[in-house]
Amino acid sequence: MTDHTGNNGWSRRRLLKASAAGTAGLGALALNGKAPFHFVRNAWAEEAIGNFPVKGKSVVFGFNVPQTGAYADEGADELRAYKLAVKHLNEGGGMLETLKPSSLSGQGVLGKKVDYVEGDTQTDPDAARTSARRMVERDGVIMYGGGSSSAVAIAQQYLAQEMGIVFMCGLTHSNDTTGKDKRRYGFRHFFNAYMSGKALGPILANEYGKDRRAFHLTADYTWGHTQYQSIKDFTEQQGWSTVDNIMTPLGTTDYSQFLTAVLNSDADVLVLNHYGKDMNNSLTQAVQFGMRDMQKNGKDMQVVVPLYSRLMAQGAGASNIDGVYGTTNWNWVLQDAGSQAFVKSFEAEYGFPPSQAAQTCYAQTLLYANACEVAGTFYPPEVIKALEGFEFEGMGPGKALYRAEDHQCFKDILVVQGKGPDKKSGEYDLLDIVSHVKRDDIIYPVDTFAGELGPYKPA
Amino acid sequence: MTINSVFLQLLTGLQLGAIYALIALGLTLIFGTLGVVNFAHGALYMLAAYCAVIIAGKMGFLAAIVLVPIMLFVVGIALERGLIRYFYNRPHVDQILVTFGLAIVVEEVVKWIFGANNIPFKLPAWGNGVAFLHEYIPFLEGFVVFPKWRLILVAVSLLTVFALFALLQFTRFGLIVRAGMREPEMLRFLGVDITKRFAIVFGLGALIAGIAGVFGGPITQVSPGVGMNLLVPSFLVVVIGGMGSLAGALIAALMLGMALAFTAEIASLQQIIIYLIAVVVLLGRPRGLLGKKGVME
After folding, report:
1. Is the CB of B219 less than 8 angstroms away from the CB of A288?
2. Cβ of B271 and A253 within 8 Å?
3. Nearest CA of chain A to the CA of B153: how many Å?
C-alpha cells in the first residue's frame, strides 16, 4: 500500500499517525501531571534553566574574550588557555593531575565530550553582551567565561544571571565584580584591587618611606575607579598623602597632558592605574618625561603600577619597567606542582609560557567542570552550590577558597618588581617576585563591599 | 597657576597639536588635491611605525628616518594606482567605505604577522632624556623639564609643514597641482599629465604619514590599533580646519592640542572638549575655519 501525499505534504496516513502519538503524549501528561523525567538523576528538582538540560553527546562552553581593543593581548592568551583546558578535560593532563579534591576524569564532563565556541568582546560591554547572548541562544552554551576589562565582565555577569547561564569571569580586577555588582551566576578566581592595595601598601611604605605624596592617573571605568580607591586607602594608612587623581579615557595613546599635570604638582610618586596598552603608553611616556630619574621633595621620584602582568611588562619594555612595583595574580615561574603542570603543558602546546590571564581562565574552566562532576548534573543551581565554599589546592601556590557569600576566590598573590634588561634571563623573565602574600593576609570581611548575589533560579 | 605650569601646558598643547598636524596634513593634502576622503591614513601611520621600529632595531634610527618615508611614498603610489584612482569620480561615501575597509584589512594583517601586543619602541640615544628648560628660558622659576623627543617632534612637524607649503607655492609642480585642483579638464586640454601628478600627491600624503610614524612611533608606541586611535582626532582637525585647507588644519591642530592640555585636570571636560570645539566651529562655520566655499558644505 502506498501513501498518497497531498499538495501540503501530509497524507491521511501520516496525519493519523501523528494524532495518535499526540493523544498518547497528552494522556501521559494528564496521568502524571508533568512530563516524564523519571529516568534523569535528581530530576525531581531540576527544571529547564538557561540551556539545561544538555542534549546530545557533547556539552558546549563559550569563551568570550577581547580579540580586538585595548586588551587584545590578554584575550589572545586567554583563548589559548581555554583551548588547552578543553583538551585536558577531554583527554586528561595539565592541572587535572594536581587539583585536589578533584572529580575530573579526563574523559569529558559527566560523560559528555566538551566542545567550545569563541566570541569577541571587543573590550566593550555592549559588544560583549551581544556576543555572549549569541553564544547562549544560538550555540547553546551551558557556561561561558572570559574577560578582560571589569566593565565587560560585570555586563556579562548580569546577563548570566538573567539567562541562567553560569559565567566564570576571566581577568577582572575591579572590586565591584564580587562587590556591589556580584551575581549568583558569576564567579571570580582572579584577585581584586582591594587585595592589591592590602598587599602592596606596606611594601611601598617600607621601600619608599612613609611620607610620600602620590599622584594617580586612572583608567576611567569601574576597574580604574576601585583600584584608585583601594591603593589610595592602603597607602594613606601607611602615612602617604594623595595629591591628585586624573581619570583618563580607556585607550588613550598620548598621556603628555596628564603627565604635565604631574610635573606641575609636588607629588613624588606616580601611581598608574592603567592596564594593557594604556599602561604600555603611560609608563613609557612617564619615563620619557624623566619621572624615573628626577627628584621631588628631596626624594627620588617613583612610579608604581599596582596591577602588573608579564604581557604588559613585555609591551612596555624591560628598560621601562626596571624596578617598578606592582602585584600579580600568578606568574609562570612559580614552582608549585599545579603551576608547573600548567606551564609545561602550555609551553608544549604553544612554545612560550602562559600569562596570568591564561592561568585564571584555565583554572576557571576546570573548576566549573569539576563542580558539575561534584553536583552530578549541569543543573545551574546545583553547580553553583558545588562551587560555593569549595576549598581546593593544586592550581597555584597554597590553598584556595571560593567564598560562598560573594563568589570571590581567595588565594596567595604576588608582589612583583619589573626586571631590567641586565637582570632578566630570557624573553619572558620580566617579573621578580618580591613577596609571596598569603591568603590569610589579604582576605577581608564579606561586608567590606555592599551588594547582593541574587537568587539561584533566574527570575 | 604659576608661570611654570602655564608654560608647560602651552608646550604640551603645542606638541600634541604637532602630532595631530602631522597626520592631518597628509589627510587634508589628499582631500584638497584629489578630493578623496582617505580613512586608510591612520593605517599608513601604523605601517610606518612598524617599519620604523623594525628598521631602527636592525639598522639604527637614522636609517629609519631616511628609509621609512621613502617606503611609504612607494606604498602610497601603489595604493593610488591600484585602488584609489578608481574612486575619484565616485561619491565620498564609496571612498570612505573602501579606505576604511582597507584600514581594517591592513590592521588585521599586521596583527596576524606581529601579534596584538605592543612592540616597545626605544628612543635613539640622542633623543632620549629631558631638556632643562629653565637653563634656556629666563622667566621660568626653578626646575622645568620637558622630554627632548617631544621638542624634536614639534621641530619636525614645523619643518614638514614649511616644506609642503614651499613645494605647493613656489615650484612648478606645486603650480600644476594647484591648477589641477581647480580645473583638471583645462589642464588636460593644455597637455599636462595631471594623473601622474595626482599619484605623486597621494604618495606625498603617505610620505608625511611615514614621517609621522617614525617620529610619533616612540610616543604612541607600536600596536595594530594605533592608527585608528589617531585617525579620529586628526580627522576632526581636518574638518574643523576646513576640508582641504593646509593652514586651517594647522590652526585646528593647535586649537585641539591646547584645549586638551588645558583641560587635563577636568576629566569630564577633557573627554569631550575636542568634539565640543568641532560642534561650536561647525555650527558657526559649516565649511570649517579656512575651508573653501562649497566644499563639504
Report:
1. yes
2. no
3. 13
* Residue keyed to cell 595626482: B198
C-alpha B22/C-alpha B16 separation (Å) is 10
**What ipTM was reported for this prediction?**
0.87
Q: What is the pLDDT of residues A164-196, one digit of tens each?
A: 999 999 999 999 999 999 999 999 999 999 999
DSSP per position, A54-114: PPSSEEEEEEEE-SSSTTHHHHHHHHHHHHHHHHHHHH--GGGGT-BS----SS-BTTBEE
Q: Do A254 and B19 touch (CB under 8 A)?
A: yes
Q: Which superfamily does CATH assign the domain made up of A58-191+332-411 to? A: Response regulator (3.40.50.2300)
| CATH number corresponding to A194-328 | 3.40.50.2300
Are A256 and B220 inside 8 Å of each other by CB? no
Per-residue model confidence as pLDDT tens digits over A346-382: 999 999 999 999 999 999 999 999 999 999 999 999 9
Cβ atoms A116, A86 nearer than 8 A = yes
Nearest to A317 among B15, B120, B225 (CB): B120
> Which residues are within 8 A (CB) of B15 and not within 5 positions of it... i.e. 6 or more apart?
A256, B150, B151, B153, B154, B257
Dig out the grid coordinates for B269 from the structure: 571636560
Question: If you ran DSSP here, which 8-state letter would residue B137 be given?
Answer: -
Report helix, strand or coil for A152: helix
Extents of the domains making up chain A: 58-191+332-411, 194-328
Contact present, B252 and B111 (Cβ < 8 Å)? no
Nearest to B32 by CA among B290, B245, B294: B245
Q: Which three cell numbers stand for residue B189?
A: 586640454
Contacts of B145 in chain A (CB under 8 A): 263, 289-290, 294
